[in-house]
Every structure is written in structure tokens, then in C-alpha cells.
Design goal:
This protein is an alpha/beta fold. The chain is built from 9 helices and 8 strands. The longest helix is centred in the last third of the chain and has 15 residues. Bound molecules: adenosine-5'-diphosphate and zinc ion.
């Protein structure tokens, strides 16, 4: 099964994606995670292409598409969940081609829809585990990652100014993908986050029965 997660920054793609990975044994391809790894090493040939993420701008389609093609073709597990990719129409078209070249296709697209107030609250309070990439809101009060004991940190791009820039990128470049996938022959599952009382596990229980396996 191949699944694409769509949603604004902070919509919960990382968190819900991790639950889907566990249930279906998927290989997760998170372009954001790949780029943050690249930024740890200034000698990486892609470093200059990727450093724009510190300003909330998108990495170029060409670089992202190459990174994803490589990740798909070198993975032994060919059941993928894409988190944070595609983010532009050109990337969506490239993904179709990458999968087709490998005898694969997208089965499910899951859209997480969240109001801007909630997104701001989540992103500005987001703490990320350096080790397992788990995500825990500051209001939970954890000193260390409750899952693995790793250090919790605030991502460079989770600050007010960069968050605004990311919303602009999302609204102009990524939002059109919703229509793209709605007009395509894929199973489209939309989940609207209406209250803060729904835990990730509860949201997962709503989404999972709607997926095409
Ligand atoms: P979020 O969904 O919270 O914005 P991500 O970890 O998915 O976080 O992405 C962090 C940053 O990495 C993005 O703001 C963007 O600059 C860059 N990035 C990630 N995926 C892509 C992509 N598919 N195309 C272009 N840039 C990307
Ligand atoms: Zn952890």
C-alpha cells in the first residue's frame, strides 16, 4: 500500500504517519526529516539547496524529486507513506512517474485539515525528539522523550516568523494538490480536526477503516 499525507504544517502528518507506519509496516519517506539530516553536515553536496528551509521556503522541485526517487529506489520495503511530499503540482506529477517507473501507484491520500489557530498553537509549542523524531507538545511537560529518552528540542523553523512563511508556501503551492488528488483515481480520505480532545490514536481509528488496503 502507498499512501500520501496532505496537510498544512502542524496538521499532524508526522504523528498520524507514525501510527500508520506501525499498523501497516510502511516505509516512511519524510522529506523534512531527510533535509534536517542533510543540514547537520555542511559538506553534503545538497546543503546549499536545502538551507532555504530555515526561512520557511520550499526546496526546489528538482532537488526534492531526486531525493525521493533515490529513497524509493533504494528501499527494500516498497510500501511507502509520504510525509511532506509532494508539496507542489510538479512534485505530484513527479511522484506519479517515480512510482510508475517502479511498478507502483498511490492507493490512499489522507488529508488532515486543521484551523490556523490550532496550527499556530501546535507549531509554536512543538518539541521534537532528536532520536526517534517523536512529537510532544510543550504543554505535556516532558523533560525527555517519553518513548526513547532522547532529547526534546524546538525545530529551527518552529518560530513565529518562519511559521507564517510556511503557511504562505502551503496556501499558494501545496493547497492545489487537494484538487489534483480529488480528481484522480485514488482513495481520498479527509479528516477535519474539530476539537483538541481527539488523541492521535482516536484520529487513527477514524482514518484506518477508510483506507484501501
Ligand atoms: P512541516 O510539515 O511542519 O512544515 P516538514 O518537516 O515536512 O515540516 O518540512 C520542513 C521544511 O522542509 C519545509 O518548510 C520546507 O522548507 C522543506 N521541505 C520539506 N518537504 C519539502 C518538499 N516536498 N518540497 C519542498 N520543500 C520541502
Ligand atoms: Zn524519542
Amino acid at each position: 500500500m502507498n499512501l500520501v499525507l496532505l496537510g498544512a504544517p502542524g496538521a499532524g502528518k508526522g504523528t498520524q504517519g507514525n501510527l500508520l507506519v506501525e499498523t501497516y509496516g510502511l516505509k516512511k519517506i519524510s522529506t523534512g526529516d531527510i533535509f534536517r539530516e542533510i543540514l547537520k553536515d555542511p559538506s553534503n553536496p545538497l546543503y546549499d539547496d536545502v538551507k532555504v528551509i530555515k526561512e520557511g521556503k520550499l526546496v526546489t522541485d528538482e532537488t526534492v524529486n531526486n531525493v525521493v526517487r533515490y529513497a524509493v529506489e533504494t528501499s527494500e520495503n516498497k510500501n511507502f507513506i509520504f510525509d511532506g511530499y509532494p508539496r507542489t503540482l510538479a512534485q505530484a506529477e513527479a511522484l506519479d512517474k517515480i512510482l510508475e517507473d517502479n511498478g507502483l501507484k498511490i492507493d490512499n491520500v489522507v488529508e488532515l485539515s486543521v484551523t490556523k489557530d490550532v496550527l499556530m498553537y501546535r507549531l509554536l509549542g512543538r518539541r521534537t525528539c532528536r532520536n526517534c523524531k517523536g512529537i510532544f507538545h510543550i504543554s505535556l511537560g516532558y523533560e525527555k522523550c517519553p518513548d526513547c529518552g532522547g532529547e526534546l528540542y524546538t525545530r529551527d523553523d518552529d518560530n513565529e516568523q518562519t511559521v507564517e512563511a510556511r503557511f504562505v508556501e502551503y496556501n499558494t503551492k501545496t493547497f492545489p494538490l487537494i484538487e489534483y488528488y480529488n480528481n484522480k483515481d485514488v482513495n481520498y480520505v479527509k479528516y477535519v480536526v474539530e476539537s483538541n480532545d481527539m488523541t492521535p490514536a482516536m484520529i487513527n481509528n477514524v482514518i484506518e477503516p477508510k483506507l484501501v488496503k
